[in-house]
Design goal:
- By secondary structure, the protein is mostly beta strands.
- Helix content is about 0%, strand content about 50%.
Length: about 130
């Protein structure tokens, strides 16, 4: 089971940390992806962390503001979100897959993070950025 937590309401410019905790399996063996979905929009890949060499990927709109990390002792993956903007408002989901190539794989010359590549999902946590 994957369970997201840490969502909430924050003012623009503020910070939140959302977390993805696993029960019944060890997250170290899996690629972890964070996705978000705003009302009326498609699910968007935000960030991921590899299960092999630890490489990370961030979509352009969050680079320099978001940081993904593993907490092995707690079998959890965090997404630290700083300098939040109203356009970051969405339901945030974590997902797992064992294929290391799905974390920021190349489609032509573009690096992408695609929801269809991930097979196991949490239920999501709402993040709202508003004054």
């Amino acid at each position: 089971q994957l369970v997201e937590s840490g969502g909430g309401l924050v003012q623009p410019g503020g910070s939140l940390r959302v977390s993805c905790a696993a029960s019944g399996f060890t997250l170290d063996y899996y690629v972890i992806g964070w996705f978000r979905q705003a009302p009326g929009k498609e699910r968007e890949g935000v960030s991921c962390i590899s299960n092999t060499d630890g490489h990370t990927y961030y979509t352009d709109s969050v680079k320099g503001r978001f940081t993904i990390s593993r907490d092995k002792a707690k079998n959890t993956v965090h997404l630290q979100m700083n300098s939040l903007k109203p356009e970051d408002t969405a339901v945030y989901f974590c997902a797992t897959d064992q294929d290391p190539t799905v974390c920021g794989r190349y489609s032509g010359s573009l690096q992408i993070l695609t929801a269809a590549d991930f097979g196991y999902w949490g239920q999501g946590t709402q993040v709202t950025v508003s004054s």
